[in-house]
Amino acid sequence: MIILGIDPGTATTGFGVIKIPDDILSREFNYDLELIAYGNISTPKEKLMQDRLHMIHNELSSVVEKYKPDQIACEMLFFGANTRTAIMVGQARGVIMLTAAQHNIPFQDYTGLQVKLMVAGSGRADKNQVHDGVRKFLGTPGRRRNKLKAHWKGGHLDDATDALAIAICHVLKLVAK
């Protein structure tokens, strides 16, 4: 089964693709997750919003067509102090849900608190703890884990790493059912 995790945003939408064994729900879960791909969909701030949303849709559709996910997991909208940002993220989420519907892919969303709790063990985990949790689930001791650390250390892949955390959270929720 292939899971596409998405961290929505209009400036940057992170995505992460992981694969789990098809029979994972019928056996004991042993963190047998395979990292397939991760990255960001970025849109220029000087573009009109409808053009940015169209770019997100087109690029996300390309990701879906390339990796053929069986399910999509996305982070829920968090209403903080900045209402304008929340509205823009909500628009990106709408495009993501539309893309899932157009490709007939089941869609599930999770709060940031759920993702942090499942991946890092605490709903109050900071970004570094979440990223360490992602590496724990996707890395193996030795070279591969160090390679993952090198890729994520620059910070420019924060959104992609968060998307992987969302995908991992989805897998853990599936296994827990």
TrEMBL record:
State whether it acts alone or in a complex, and with which partners, per the record: Homodimer which binds Holliday junction (HJ) DNA. The HJ becomes 2-fold symmetrical on binding to RuvC with unstacked arms; it has a different conformation from HJ DNA in complex with RuvA. In the full resolvosome a probable DNA-RuvA(4)-RuvB(12)-RuvC(2) complex forms which resolves the HJ.
| Protein name in UniProt | Crossover junction endodeoxyribonuclease RuvC
Q: Can you state which reaction this protein catalyses?
A: Endonucleolytic cleavage at a junction such as a reciprocal single-stranded crossover between two homologous DNA duplexes (Holliday junction)
Query: Could you mention a single GO BP entry for this protein?
Result: DNA repair
Gene Ontology CC entries for this record? cytoplasm; Holliday junction resolvase complex
Q: What is the lineage of its organism?
A: Bacteria, Candidatus Daviesiibacteriota
Record flagged with keyword Metal-binding: yes
Residues annotated as binding Mg(2+) 2: E75
Question: Which EC number(s) does the record attach to this protein?
Answer: 3.1.21.10
- Which cofactors does this protein require? Mg(2+)
Family the entry assigns = Belongs to the RuvC family.
Q: Its biological function?
A: The RuvA-RuvB-RuvC complex processes Holliday junction (HJ) DNA during genetic recombination and DNA repair. Endonuclease that resolves HJ intermediates. Cleaves cruciform DNA by making single-stranded nicks across the HJ at symmetrical positions within the homologous arms, yielding a 5'-phosphate and a 3'-hydroxyl group; requires a central core of homology in the junction. The consensus cleavage sequence is 5'-(A/T)TT(C/G)-3'. Cleavage occurs on the 3'-side of the TT dinucleotide at the point of strand exchange.
User: For Mg(2+) 1, which residues are the binding ones?
Assistant: D7, D159
Its annotated compartments are: Cytoplasm
Gene Ontology molecular function, alphabetical = crossover junction DNA endonuclease activity; DNA binding; magnesium ion binding
Q: Which HAMAP family match?
A: RuvC
Pfam families, sorted: RuvC
Instruction: Could you list this entry's UniProt keywords, alphabetically sorted.
Output: Cytoplasm, DNA damage, DNA recombination, DNA repair, DNA-binding, Endonuclease, Hydrolase, Magnesium, Metal-binding, Nuclease
Query: Signal peptide: which range, if any?
Result: none
List, from the UniProt record, the residues annotated as the active site of this protein: D7, E75, D159
What does this protein's record comment on cofactor binding?
Binds 2 Mg(2+) ion per subunit.
